[in-house]
Write a structure and sequence with these properties.
Chain A: Keywords: ATP-binding, Nucleotide-binding, Transport. The complex is a heterodimer of chains A (260) and B (659). Chain A has 260 residues and is of the alpha/beta class. Helix content of chain A is 37%, strand content 24%. In chain A, strands 6-7-8-3-9-10 form a 6-stranded mixed beta sheet, sandwiched between helices. Chain A has a 4-stranded antiparallel beta sheet with strand order 2-1-4-5, with helices on one face. In chain A, helix 7 links the parallel strand 7 and strand 8. The relative contact order of chain A is 0.18. Chain B contains 21 helices and 28 strands. The radius of gyration of chain B is 25 Å and the shape is globular. In chain B, 49% of the residues are buried. The chains are: A alpha/beta (260), B alpha/beta (659).
Chain lengths: 260, 659
């Protein structure tokens, strides 16, 4: 395999996040390297989604530093994170159910649209050319994720597994350099999981996108990720390559429970 | 009993005796007409005849440079992609033989064909096919190079025998520029008796055999079909059936080259229905199951439609049943009925054809299996000129065709122009003509055994000519067996009757040397699932749904209807189905239960499920069985179930009621 893992692009240092008296994350540090697939695992309530939300700018940690591409991040909102090339998918699908797959994916291009709505109100002109250029990119993503057959189908009518794929497509439409996937395979059957795994690997290998993912299926995590962070009750209890983490007694105890 | 040669045998134009020469001809006379379209990135992209020829030249040069020589075999595997069709022509330019493989075959099955054909190079569609070939590479000593069409996912493959088609084309273009006469010289060397293509038989009986067909044979069949139905270079066809199937090679290649019309490749196998609508083919070929799926979908959607629409649909379908076919065939129909039908045309038939994507259709054919009379009538009554044909891989799918205006439900038509058909004493259909195979590859024994002493090819099908000279097919000659009491048992005939119900997907009948007939049934998951959903019947999957008593009741009705129908047929009344069961798993080609063209392999199934067959005849009410299955990714698994067995009512023999 000719994949290249580069330098650290995202460095999280001593992150602590609490909601009132509830400590969601306590003093967590880890980094993400360019081009790798980084998994975050842990039991329910371990703080995995909170971690993603911190990276993504939804939550603002009370303590700690976040360095993204060499720049320390100030307080920012998700919109700015997106502009910096961070895209994500959600645990509970957040698509526009009444809109077609195509339109949903087009919304992923929103940040790159340069013309304002007055231009857009005109049928001809630069807006139309821009639309065509964006549509072309979206069609490439549709081809990449093999969802040509549902291009014009309203998302609400699709089965769950396909909706997840459409969400991935929308995130890809923003051409992110860092892609956050919150349980991309939750609730899928074996075949759908295999498909999703393949797409995640394809995205990583062919588009060179760095991926941070949360996943419950241990088999999947161990198969596709380069390094794994393990959280438990808001603390980091393990970090390393899958084989190392799998054999770590602390991790086994916390995550898999005694007896495994 | 022989039928004479028809006067208008198709003539092959001098100078255009091979497919590459025809291609060059089209590139001259209709260079800017579309030859192939493909939907990519949501848009139909067109290759003109001129572009196709240029690409074929480059491909041929590239292949020659890679070491492909006259007589070598080139395997072609993949969905219907323009460049795979062009690869067929490129191999032919060099005097090589394209070997077409089914793209959904598992690696194991491919290994057999690739070894048998001693394939030297392969042009494949994508990573999936490359992976399969690499898996079996150690067993393919003759395979030197693999070229892939779609570079996706191929970046990290380092095997030296792999190369992208883009690079091959580029190398070929340079070669063509430097030696512009090379391709023309190679094309001139080709002769009409050269083998133009090798297609493998589906292997219903034993291992598949490589059928070597010549340019002459396929051009004869192609020209024959074009003349028979007056096809022009303006036809549009949708090429979505496996390229390895003789039907696709005839319709999408031989006929397209013969008439110079346009073939359209769908975006993916899942988008075929949408693509069909967008293209609106004028000429269409599909096996009965495709027509059946189409109609099933119409019905499912109609059941979800509003009451007014449902009433309208039902009313006008009755009108169509009464006079639709007569109007299609131009027979006299009372004025009032004609007006009624015209109203239906505006309100129902026209929009329905449009939804199906068949608005522009002039001629449609079906073949490969028997088509249900209901189904056949349905399409013809809404104004679709659906006809049947009969043929095999060995005859370029060209033996009998139904002429316009002489279409009967239960026959496959008259011998095609230039084809002689006779019925042997044992009831077997035998044919003679230029469209016959040259040989089975490396099987002189089989080749010799396939022909009788007068040079007729023995089709292995049993049939007879009716009073109007139309051929009727009963079954495979060797499948026709006898019950213990000596009465005739034609399993296919019974299975087809069962399969004509939309709820039943597959059926396997047993009865040879047995006291009575029994059957295995596969329900159609979509149709029965929909029915179950509407009744609020919960089920977790195929196995669960198949064993529900309510589903058994439903299927029992179908079986008893078939029995009633059989009871009116003096020869068949003994073949009524006494007992049946619904199989706990769907019959699948991956488990070798069906051939790639979805024909049941009866003997294999009888052995694999011997316990169930015994239980049927032992009078048990149910039987436990465990079955190994192969998943699409090649893993093995197990399905276990307690399969119920039911008795069905049989009817005393009685003459059929009139009408």
């Amino acid at each position: 395999m000719a994949r290249v893992i580069g330098d650290v692009i995202l460095d999280l240092q001593n992150i602590s996040l609490s909601f009132g008296g509830v400590k969601a994350l306590t003093n967590i540090s880890f980094d993400v390297r360019e081009g790798e697939i980084r998994a975050i695992i842990g039991p329910n309530g371990a703080g995995k989604s909170s971690m993603l939300n911190v990276i993504n700018g939804v939550y603002h940690p009370q303590q700690g530093r976040i360095v993204f591409r060499g720049q320390e991040r100030r307080r920012m909102n998700p919109h700015e994170a997106a502009a910096q090339g961070i895209a994500r998918t959600f645990q509970n699908i957040a698509l526009f159910k009444g809109m077609t797959v195509l339109d949903n994916i087009m919304t992923g291009r929103n940040l790159m649209m340069r013309r304002n709505f007055l231009w857009n109100a005109l049928y001809w002109g630069p807006s139309r050319r821009e639309e065509i250029a964006h549509r072309k990119r979206v069609e490439e993503i549709i081809d990449f994720l093999e969802i040509q057959n549902i291009r014009k189908t309203p998302v609400g009518r699709l089965p769950y597994g396909l909706q997840k794929r459409v969400e991935l497509a929308r995130a890809l439409a923003a051409e992110p350099s860092l892609l956050l996937l919150d349980e991309p395979m939750a609730g899928m059957n074996v075949e759908e999981k295999q498909d999703m795994c393949r797409f995640i690997l394809d995205v990583n290998e062919q588009l060179g996108t760095t991926i941070v993912l949360i996943e419950h299926d241990m088999g999947v995590v161990m198969d596709i990720s380069d390094r794994v962070v393990v959280l438990d009750y808001g603390r980091k209890i393990g970090d390393g390559p899958p084989d190392e983490v799998r054999n770590d007694p602390v991790v086994i105890e916390a995550y898999l429970g005694a007896g495994h | 009993m022989a039928e004479g040669t028809k006067p208008h045998a198709p003539a092959i134009i001098p100078g255009l005796e091979t497919f590459p020469r025809l291609l060059r001809h089209h590139a001259r006379v209709r260079a800017d007409r579309p030859a192939i379209r493909e939907k990519e990135y949501g848009i139909w992209q067109t290759y003109t005849w001129g572009e196709c020829y240029a690409q074929v030249r480059a491909l041929a040069c590239g292949l020659a440079e890679a070491g492909f020589r006259r007589g070598d075999r080139l395997a072609i595997v993949g969905d219907n992609r323009p460049r795979l069709y062009l690869a067929v022509a490129a191999a032919q330019c060099l005097g090589g033989i394209p070997v077409l493989l089914y793209q959904d075959a598992i690696a194991e099955e491919m290994a057999y064909v690739l070894q048998d054909a001693e394939v030297k190079m392969a042009v494949v569609e994508d990573q999936e096919q490359v992976d399969k070939l690499l898996e079996i590479l150690d067993r393919l000593p003759s395979l030197e190079r693999i070229f892939y069409d779609d570079p996706r996912g191929m970046r990290h493959y380092t095997q030296p025998l792999l190369q992208g088609l883009d690079e091959l084309l580029e190398a070929g273009r340079i070669h063509d520029r430097n030696q512009p006469d090379f391709v023309d010289e190679e094309i001139e060397k080709g002769e009409s008796d050269d083998v133009s293509v090798m297609l493998y038989t589906s292997g219903t009986t034993g291992k598949p055999k490589g059928v070597c067909q010549t340019h002459r044979a396929f051009l004869f069949a192609g020209m024959g079909g074009v003349q028979f139905d007056h096809l022009t270079d303006r036809e549009e066809v949708l090429s979505y059936l496996p390229m390895a199937w003789v039907g696709d090679h005839l319709f999408s290649y031989a006929q397209a080259y013969a008439a110079g019309f346009t073939i359209n490749c769908p975006e993916s196998s899942e988008t075929v229905m949408t693509d069909l609508r967008e293209i609106g083919p004028t000429y269409y070929f599909a096996p009965p199951r495709v027509f059946e799926n189409l109609r099933t979908q119409v019905w499912i959607r109609m059941e979800d439609a509003g009451r007014l629409k449902q009433a309208m649909f039902r009313h006008f379908m009755k009108v169509a049943e009464r006079c639709g076919i007569q109007i299609l065939e131009g027979r006299p129909v009372p004025l009032l009925q004609r007006l009624h039908y015209a109203l239906g045309e505006i309100l129902v038939y026209g929009p329905l054809r449009n939804v199906l994507g068949l608005s522009r259709l002039r001629v449609a054919y079906t073949a490969g299996a028997a088509i249900g009379p209901d189904l056949f009538r349905f399409y013809r009554s809404i104004g679709i000129n659906l006809k049947q044909l009969y043929g095999q891989t060995e005859t370029c799918a060209y033996v009998c065709l139904q002429p316009d205006g002489e279409v009967k439900l239960d026959s496959v038509g008259k011998p095609a122009p230039g084809v002689e058909v006779k019925i042997a004493d044992n009831g077997e259909i035998r044919v003679r003509g230029p469209m016959l195979l040259k040989a089975y590859y490396k099987r002189p024994q089989d080749t010799a055994e396939a022909f009788d002493e007068e040079g007729y090819f023995m089709t292995g099908d049993a049939g007879f000519f009716d009073e109007d000279g139309h051929l009727k097919i009963i079954d495979r000659a060797k499948d026709v067996g006898r019950l213990k009491d000596g009465s005739i048992f034609a399993p296919n005939y019974i299975e087809n009757k069962l399969k004509f119900f939309p709820l039943i997907k597959e059926a396997v009948a047993f009865g040879h040397d047995r006291p009575y007939v029994t059957a295995f049934i596969n329900i159609d998951l979509e149709a029965v699932g929909n029915w179950a959903e509407r009744r609020g019947l919960a089920y977790s999957g195929y196995t669960d749904l198949a064993q529900q008593p309510a589903v058994y009741d439903l299927i029992q009705q179908c079986v008893e209807e078939v029995n009633e129908d059989l009871s009116h047929d003096p020869q068949m009344s003994g073949s009524q189905i006494r007992r049946f069961l619904i199989l706990h798993k769907e019959l699948d080609a991956d488990d070798e239960e069906l051939t790639r063209t979805r024909k049941v392999r009866r003997r294999f199934i009888a052995e694999k499920y011997a316990v169930l067959v015994e239980a049927l005849y032992a009078g048990k009410d149910s039987q436990y069985i465990e079955t190994a299955v192969k998943y699409e990714d090649g893993r093995a698994g197990k399905i276990a179930a307690e399969v119920r067995i039911r008795d069905a009512k049989v009817f005393p023999p009685s003459p059929r009621a009139q009408g």
